[in-house]
Amino acid sequence: MSEALVEIDRVSKRFGDYTAVTDTSFSIGEGEFLAIMGSSGCGKTTMLRMLAGLEEPSEGEIRLEGRSQKGLPPWGRDLPLVWQSLALFPFLSVLDNVGFGLKMRGVAKAERDRRSLAWLHKLELGEFASRNVMQLSGGQRQRVALARALVTEPKVLLLDEPLSALDAHLSVRMQALLRSLQRELGITFVYVTHSQTEAFSMADRVVIMSRGKVEQIGSPQAIYRHPANRFVAEFIGNVTILRGSVAEVGEQSVRLNTATGGMSVSRGNFAGSHGAHADFYVNADQIAIGDEPRHENHVRARFLSHKFIGNMVTLFLEVPGIEDDLKVILPERTYDCLGMQPGDSVVASWPAAAAHFFGGAA
Amino acid sequence: MMLRLGRWFGWAYTGYTFLFILAPIAASLVFSFNADRFPSLPLKGFTTEWYGGTFTDPLVIEAFQRSVMVSIPVALLSTILGFCAAYCDFRFDFRGKSLFSLLMLLPPTIPAVIMGLGMLSYLSRISLAGEVWAVLISHVVIALPFAMAMIRLRLAQMDSALEEASWNLQASPAQTLWYVVLPFCKQSLVAAFLITAAVSFDEFAVAWFVSGLNETVPVRVLVFLQGQVSPVINAIGTAVFTSSIFLVAIGMAFSGMGKAKRAAADGPAQPAAGALVSNNGLSL
Predict the structure, then answer these.
(1) Same domain, yes or no, for A243 and A222?
(2) Chain B contact for A87, CB < 8 A?
(3) Quick one: A91 and A226 in the same domain?
(4) Hey, are the CB atoms on A75 and B265 less than 8 Å from each other?
(5) Number of domains in chain A
(6) pLDDT for B146-178, tens place per residue?
(7) Residue A362 located in a structural domain
(8) A90 and A37 assigned to the same domain
(9) Structure confidence at residue B264 (pLDDT)
(10) Chains A, B: CB contacts under 8 A, how many?
(11) What pLDDT was estimated at residue B1?
């Protein structure tokens, strides 16, 4: 990430009694693909609307290239938005939809049409230029909306759940298109979504929001491996959270007493002392399953059910003394070789390096 | 069996209602071509004499000209003001907004006699009673709610993101109004124009109060009736009916135009504009 292009500085937004965004700060680098992710009502769309100037922050300010955007109306900013509903103009042709922003900037018709057409060709829509937007398919309209926002060559493009209306197959293709377009143009993308797949497959960095607050900012890998807190861990859903009291703080690892016996957890920058209670999490894809323990931490568990996700399988195990199911992710082939049946008793084991304290990863 | 009987009854009832509404108009149409001076059966034979007589009568021609001269500016003004009122209601939130909307839509619910009297007493105080202006002003008051209602219905179909998208593409609010909102409402504007023209062209009661010597067609017809029962009235009635139904039909076609094309993206099509026009026909 290079220097900050957009700075969000202690921004809050209230609607009457309701606080949509609370004291939020982060910055967005030039040429970065940033995804803002969270479930509905988490404040992600409000954040985007504040960037576009459609809402004014109640407190704090947003800076673009160091300039405060305070008080600037939407039409005074150059932050085009791709809308969830697309918001194409139904009474205009495809070409005129794309050229709208140029027209408002006073670009002459010939130049406007030339530039719009170039973008339509780039997005493989050249042959539809004279059509009405209502005659296009969902995926084609999506690309028209993209062309309309990009034709003015902005530095930052805002996208509000643009793929949520497309079917899975089309969505995957659009993700690839967006990613390659972003790389090629070097434009900063701010992409709001509730979909983990979209955020993790495209973004350089992901901002996870919940109830108006940022829970974690980081690369998809960092968030996946080291969720900052219980909320993120549960939201991403690839770890099991356990709890214990500290028995011994060692050089590399911390020994805890848990409901299922002693466990070793990577120490990281853990600062607790003897007897303190602490939550920790175990990465689901670093747990081994077998008849014998293969790592220092091990529990005896009962195999409950499984779920296929592509070529990986998520297993749910019942462990006496633990409230949640223990989640284990295995390659499909490994799972096949185990030949387990629901109800079977198995041993799950993992090294200390697979378990971490929240926020404690070095 | 019960279901079929119910359906049969439904059709019969609908048919009877239409007969009840349309029979006088049909009678007027038939007798306007009847050779007999008196509207009685059996018919005496076909003639266009009454039409010929009507459209050479300078008083009738003058009344027609006046009706057209009034209805076009009325339609134009009502459509413009109706759009402003509808957009105001759509876009802004302000104290007393529901009262504002209620007052805007009130005139058609006021009995025509009360409206006519009120208009007469008001307009005579500002020395406009008996002028063509008086008819024009009164008709704008009566026709404006129709225009507002039709345009407001169309605005309700507009994705609220559409205006925001326009601002986002650096169009000012004024440019957005001109390049986005007006084009979006275009068909309903044309429909509102035609239907308010029809409302004005047909309106009798208030015009009778305020027009003085500047008679519009419906007023002229009443004056005729007071003097004599002439088949000329049937001819005028038929002509007025035809022109009004023509305006309303085109208006409806416009308000429903491209329904199939829009249906997918726009949600429900707006109700037929004609349903808004009521209580304004010629009462012959």
Answers:
(1) no
(2) yes
(3) yes
(4) no
(5) 2
(6) 999 999 999 999 988 999 999 999 999 999 999
(7) no
(8) yes
(9) 38
(10) 68
(11) 64
Kindly state the percentage of chain B with pLDDT values over 90.
Answer: 26
- Structure confidence at residue A360 (pLDDT): 63
- ∠ CA A290-A291-A296, nearest 5°, is 70
Q: What is the mean pLDDT of chain B?
A: 80
**What is the token pair recorded at A46?**
């409000």
Q: Which of B229, B246, B196, B223 is nearest to B80 (CA)?
A: B196
Q: Does A73 touch chain B (CB under 8 A)?
A: yes
Nearest alpha carbon to residue B148 among B204, B116, B101, B184:
B101
> Does any domain span residue A84?
yes
Domain boundary among A203, A230, A257: A230
Strand order in the sheet with A67-68: A18-29, A4-15, A59-64, A67-68
Q: Cβ separation of B168 and A52 shorter than 8 Å? A: yes
Surface-to-core class of residue B232, CB atoms within 10 Å of its CB (0-12 exposed, 13-18 middle, 19+ buried): buried
**A202 and A350 fall within a common domain:** no
> In chain B, whose CA is at the least distance from the CA of A100?
B169
Higher pLDDT: B238 or A177? It is A177
Q: Does A48 touch chain B (CB under 8 A)?
A: no
Which chain A residues are Cβ-neighbours of B188 within 8 angstroms? none
Q: Do A85 and B184 touch (CB under 8 A)?
A: no
Q: CA gyration radius for chain A?
A: 25
Let me know if residue A110 belongs to a domain: yes
Higher pLDDT, B276 or A312: A312
Tens-place pLDDT, residues A32-43: 999 999 988 899
List Cβ neighbours of B52 (8 Å cut-off, separation of 6 or more).
Answer: none
Nearest chain B CA: its distance from A195 CA (Å): 22
Q: pLDDT per residue over B82-103, tens digit each?
A: 999 999 999 888 888 888 888 8
pLDDT at A187 over 60: yes
Distance, in angstroms, between B184 CA and closest chain A CA?
6
Query: Are residues B171 and A132, on separate chains, in Cβ contact within 8 Å?
Result: no
User: For residue range B93-146, what is the model confidence (pLDDT) as tens digits?
Assistant: 888 888 888 888 888 888 888 888 888 888 888 877 777 788 888 889 989 999
Nearest C-alpha of chain A: how many angstroms from B263? 10
Spatial separation of the C-alpha atoms in residues A193 and A164, rounded to whole Å: 8
Show residues of chain B in contact with A100, CB under 8 Å: 166, 169, 171, 179
For domain B49-276, give the fold.
MetI-like fold (1.10.3720)
Cβ neighbours of A104 in B, within 8 Å? 166, 169-171, 175, 179
Using alpha carbons, list the distances in angstroms from residue B165 to A107, A243, B135, B136, B234: 19, 49, 43, 39, 55
Same domain, residue pair A223 and A252: no
Q: Which of A116, A134, A142 to mutate to test the interface with B (most CBs of B within 10 A)?
A: A134
Q: Which domain holds residue A84?
A: 4-230
Per-residue pLDDT of A54-98, as tens digits, reads 999 999 999 999 899 998 999 999 899 999 999 999 999 999 999
In 10 A of CB B157, how many CB atoms? Answer: 17
